Structures are given as structure tokens and as C-alpha cells.
Amino acid sequence: MDVSAHREWMYSRVLPDGVGLKNTFYEGVEIFILHACQLDQFKNEGTIRCPCLICDCLNNEIPDEVRDHLYKKGFRTNYFYWTSHGEEIPALVPLTQPPPSVFGQNGCRENLTSYEQMVMDVAGLSFSPKDEQSMEETPNQETQAFYDLLAASQSSLFEGCSSHSELSASLELLTIKAEHNLCQEAYNKIVKFCRRTWPPDNCMPPNYYRTKKMVERLGLNYEKN
Predict the structure, then answer these.
(1) Is 19 exposed, middle or buried (0-12, 13-18, 19+ CB in 10 A)?
(2) Which of 1, 85, 107, 176 has its Cα between 20 and 30 A from that of 95?
(3) What's the pTM?
(4) Cα 67 to chain centroid, rounded
(5) Residue-wise pLDDT tens digits, 117-165
């Protein structure tokens, strides 16, 4: 799967009427910030390279400044691979597509959130239509992990919540943990408080360990602190 297809949100920033930014762009920026906060530069210096159109990865800024720059100016040109933020351009871009039923009848992606697209990024590397199982079959471990992650990106955090899914809320809290260098105990206390104050049917993972195990499927790794 061409990486430009699943990071198309990077260059689709402004709403059609020209007023305000798209939710997929806000979501995507949070995914980028979370990724950048795992790099040694942020852990050592508290800054990340700003990939906005003006800074062009030449200036180091705190995460809030990077957000502000990206909201106002957008990303540098053709930065689908985050090469200044630890990624490498593969010698051969994977071409395997996830099951057509995941995208819809016409293979359309524009209605997917950035978090759903993020799951598709992972699926595209190892999941193909021939892996889709019939309803009578029990999915293998790899297939079930994909379905679980997709469900986490689609399910509301709790009934009536339209702003966050299980996956988006987890990633946002992990971003806060990384930005402020919170220990696991502090993170767990925040999650415990949130779960107590939210409706009982909320699906927030109960602690850091469970959250970490979920996002590791996306290729995001977190060091213990």
C-alpha cells in the first residue's frame, strides 16, 4: 500500500468552505506528535523537529508549538515518510490491500478517520483479501488482532460519545504521558479517575499495560518509566 494513500490527511487540512480544519487533520497531527515524542530527541531535550511548511524540519520546538505551526501552515511538501522523525523510505512499498469489505463496496477511504487509516497502515503490510475469513470460521491470531484494533478505532469511548474512540482516547492520553514525562503510576491514576467519572459502559483500557499492549500492534513502542 502506498504510504501517500494512508497519510492523505496530511495534505487535506482545510474544510471545503475554507473555514476551520478537518477533524482528520487534527487526529493525524496527534498521531504525528505521539510518534515524535517517542524519539530520543524529545526524551533528551523536550523538543521535536517541526515539519511545518516554514520550519521544514530545521527548527526544534516543543510539541504545542509544533501543533500550532502545523495547524496554521500545514506539513512540508511531500513528507509522507517522516524521515526526519525516525522513519525510513522502504526499498519496496508494499502493495497488499486490506479486505475490500473494510473499505466499503468501492474501496473508498475518505470516510475513514485517521485512526482507522492508521490501522489500515498496519493491515496493509500483512493482511490481504485471501485472509478474510467466513463467518463460520474462527479467525487466526493475526486476523483477530486486526479486527480487535479496527474495532477499537471505530467504537465510541462510551455510548453517546462522538469525539473519541477507544483507540483515539488511548493515543491522546499516551501523548500527554510522553509530553509531560508522567510515570506509569500517575498515568494509571488518571485513567482510573476517568473511568470512574465516565459512564460505566466506557471502553477505556484500565491501565498503562493494557493500553501499551493495544498500541504496540500499531508499531508504537513505549519505554517503561
Answers:
(1) exposed
(2) 85
(3) 0.63
(4) 15
(5) 777 766 654 444 444 444 445 666 767 777 788 888 888 888 888 888 8
Percentage of the residues of the chain whose pLDDT score is greater than 90: 37
Q: For residue range 55-104, list pLDDT tens digits in order.
A: 999 999 999 999 999 999 999 999 998 999 998 877 654 444 444 444 44
Intra-chain end-to-end CA distance of the chain, in Å = 35
Question: Partners of 21 in the beta sheet?
Answer: 14
> Which helix (H) or strand (E) covers residue 126, if one does?
helix 114-126
Q: Which long-range contacts (CB under 8 A, 24 or more apart) does 181-188 make?
A: 181/225, 183/225, 184/208, 184/224, 184/225
Q: Are 150 and 116 in contact (CB under 8 A)?
A: yes
In the numeric block, the cell 492520553 is attached to: 173
Residue of 202, 205, 120 lying closest to 170 (CA atoms): 205
